[in-house]
Amino acid sequence: MAPSGSRSIKRSCQTVLYWIPVIFITLIVAWSYYAYVVQLCIESIDNIGQKIVYLLAYHVAFILFTWAYWQTIFTKPMNPLKEFHLSYSDKELLEREDRGESQQEILRRIAKDLPIYTRTMSGAIRFCDRCQLVKPDRCHHCSVCDKCILKMDHHCPWVNNCVGFSNYKFFMLFLAYSLLYCIFITATDLQYFIKFWTNGLPDTQAKFHIMFLFFAASMFSVSLASLFVYHCWLVCKNRSTLEAVRAPAFRHGADKNGFSLGLSKNFRQVFGDEMRYWPFPVYSSLGDGCSFPTCLVNQDPEQPTSPGHNPPPDKTVVGESHQFPAKPLRESQSRLLNSAPSWTENGGAEDKERRGTSNPAMAIENET
């Protein structure tokens, strides 16, 4: 009982510690709301028109920012489907084998019916000992969550959550709107910050809130801008942070651009096909997170033409039968690389892509 009780206390302490960064950000945002709305707009700005415009614009940025932050924090990371988990008999068979090669033969047999194209650097099947499953492409085990996360990007302490397939769009919008929030505060607070140093403000507590608000917003703007630009680059290249550090390995070797389908398709894979959903933190990403089309055609001759699991329909696409990928992965690759109507590119990009798929035996990289 004692060891169990100590583990429970340890987990409780860890849970509290993990929430400290989120509580810190929440307190900073709550103070910034008070400082901007009450101390700056209500107490310091005399012009009624300017006050109304500032308050309206501020609350739009504030609502979008807090909405995206909430979604990033409380959207549960997606885990691999049950088809990727080992059955009881497979677990027993794997445990009885001592030799690594024999274990790999068992895993290869299991993976034969799954849409898996990536391997370890040594060419072995990617297997998670803790979760007892064959890892889907782009899936990684998070040591903090102690789970395998689909298309894991990183574990972010500022949201106390794993950023992955289910909430990566929300994380991108959180970065965008938090940057917009900080830039807006910095720009509108600047003239009053200058007045603070020229003794143009009345000697009240508002002047100190205005000064610290400007410092905090400008410093956060710099760090958020660098992080946002980096993740925009990752979206354009269709890479996760982990894949940027270490390129995914296929049967032919590591390829950092293995999942890149071109700028437009890479963007739509995260944000979806319908533009009206792009600015809002509502789920609109394409796919099921377990399988992804690649620009590498016929890369795995051992892969079956009919994988054992069928992904659920993509609910975010209205009025189309299109799924991403709804068919076997190789068919999805061919469809995407051949510019299906739902992924049509404009002008020369379409012609270039059509030319690039004329030889299906080649590994194709369609970058725009």
TrEMBL record:
The DHHC domain is required for palmitoyltransferase activity. Residues 297-308, 334-345 have a biased composition (Polar residues). The chain crosses the membrane at residues 16-36, 48-70, 170-188, 208-230. Pfam families: DHHC. It is found in: Membrane. InterPro entries: Palmitoyltrfase_DHHC, PFA4/ZDH16/20/ERF2-like. Residues 126-245 form the Palmitoyltransferase DHHC domain. Residues 297-368 are annotated as: Disordered. Keywords: Acyltransferase, Membrane, Transferase, Transmembrane, Transmembrane helix. The keyword RNA-binding does not apply. It is a multi-pass membrane protein. This is Palmitoyltransferase. Belongs to the DHHC palmitoyltransferase family. Its EC number is 2.3.1.225. It is an enzyme of class 2 (transferase). One of its GO terms (cellular component) is membrane. It catalyses: L-cysteinyl-[protein] + hexadecanoyl-CoA = S-hexadecanoyl-L-cysteinyl-[protein] + CoA.
